[in-house]
Amino acid sequence: MAPNRLVKGFPAEIVGSQSPNGWAEREYRSDCHPHLGMERYSGNGIAVAPPFPHALASLGTAFRSQTMRIGLIGYGRMGQAIERVAVARGHLIEGVIRSETPPETRLTLARACDVLVDFSHADAVPAHIELALETGRPLVIGTTGWDALRPALAEQVRQAGGAIIYAPNFSVAVQLFIRHAVALATHLLKLEGWDVAIEEIHHRAKADAPSGTARKIADQIAHHSQREWSFGVPERGRLPEGQFTVSALRIGSEFGTHRILLDGPYDWMELTHRAKGREGFAYGAVRSAEWLLHRNRKGFFHLEEVLDEILNTTGRID
Ligand SMILES: NC(=O)c1ccc[n+]([C@@H]2O[C@H](COP(=O)([O-])OP(=O)(O)OC[C@H]3O[C@@H](n4cnc5c(N)ncnc54)[C@H](OP(=O)(O)O)[C@@H]3O)[C@@H](O)[C@H]2O)c1
């Protein structure tokens, strides 16, 4: 079997032969591509080492599936992480859409892809959904900051028969952390004398505070424990009964830490998730793309609703 050829840039070049269902006919076999998972391609034919070669290699070795041709919308920090993880799992980056990419080129690229992955800017998300609907391509959206528009756009996608999955945090570990840590916290808060606080730490460039993930954790704990949360503490006076705090720290290049602190009469507990890089978000996004395509699902999905289904999808087409 010839090694995978990874093509990026314009005009988009179709890689591999076409199957009747429109997929690229190529199967990833870790034993036949000496570089897969150990190198990535810079787009000019030069292979460069990824930052975590062993981690990326392990993402690819257990996976056997048809190759996806991915169109990346946005090629910033996350777009590049998606590329690393997708290539390690045997997929192809068909091309990249950036802010200056003209509409015709966007259409051409989207039609040449099996799936689009958007980590760009909130203002551009409606246009990217239009692009996915017009070309009939499934779309994974990791871009944040368009919450107010989401209900209307989700309805538009459902009516048009589109296929979109969205998450403000695509880390599978974070999703499981939220699920299980919140369950444990709310269990303890039903006992006498327990209190809770949430802390998040991110890099200096982060635009919002508290993070969407911290908000989600706080909302869920508040809901289940009949308490309210506030961002920070009152300048004067004590924290009112029935209220707990969420605090944020900004430092250096921290990828993202979320901590739930629990204080009981006889015990202290800290539950912490710390991202080691952007690859965790990228991994969840690529798994989601595989699921949309493999299962041919139509609709507008939130990752948390379909996480178990995605994790039970091995990536193998039987
Ligand atoms: N869901 C998650 O798990 C998760 C995790 C991390 C980040 N995010 C979110 O993902 C988004 C991107 O984050 P990032 O750190 O990768 O940002 P970034 O490094 O600033 O990259 C943003 C990219 O978006 C591109 N872009 C902007 N407007 C565009 C448009 N109209 N069409 C196509 N591309 C456009 C930019 O292209 P140019 O360079 O050409 O302008 C740039 O390549 C943010 O919303 C962030 O909050 C989500």
Q: What is the percent of helical residues?
A: 25-40%
Question: Do you know the CATH architecture of the largest domain?
Answer: 3-Layer(aba) Sandwich
Radius of gyration: 21 Å
Major β-sheet strand ordering: 4-3-5-6-7-13
CATH topology of the largest domain: Rossmann fold
Average pLDDT for all residues: 83
Structural class: alpha/beta
CATH class of the largest domain: Alpha Beta
The overall number of domains is 3
- Main sheet: strands, sense, barrel: 6 strands, parallel
Estimate the strand proportion.
15-25%
CA distance, first residue to last residue: 21 Å
SSE ordering: EEHEHEHEHEHEHEHEEEEHEH
Chemical compounds bound to the protein: NADP nicotinamide-adenine-dinucleotide phosphate
Low-confidence stretches: 1-53, 60-64
Number of helices: 9
Characterize this entry briefly.
Helices cover 35% and strands 20% of the residues. The protein is built from nine helices and 13 strands. It has helices spanning 53-61, 77-88, 103-112, 125-135, 150-160, 172-189, 212-225, 279-294, 303-311, and strands spanning 40-41, 47-48, 69-73, 92-97, 115-118, 139-141, 163-166, 195-202, 228-231, 243-250, 257-263, 268-274, 299-302.
